Amino acid sequence: MKFRFLLGAIVLPLLTLPTFAQAELLPGDAREGRELAREVCSACHRVEKEERGVSPVGAPAFQDVADDPAVTETALQVFFRVPHESMPDLILTPTETDDAIAYILGLR
Q1: How many structural domains does the chain have?
Q2: pLDDT level of residue 5 (50, 70, 90 thresholds)
């Protein structure tokens, strides 16, 4: 009986490690990223989970971006650092960039 209890006490906490590991792989705070997206990005993008499709101004939904297998943290880091003609000049701090990326990739 003690062995089963001890085994359970060791194994059960380990079952949650993949969840924690995935959350820790990305720098940034997804909750802050969601607030940033609502405040700054929602004028052009659909930013909420499960909102899909191109917005009236032609911007892709964040969910569609997240669902694209080619979109990685690195790809988003580069995207946010390079100006785009179709986007306003939005200068994000490194923390805001990390938060936005954590939110977008967290939509998966």
Answers
A1: 1
A2: very low
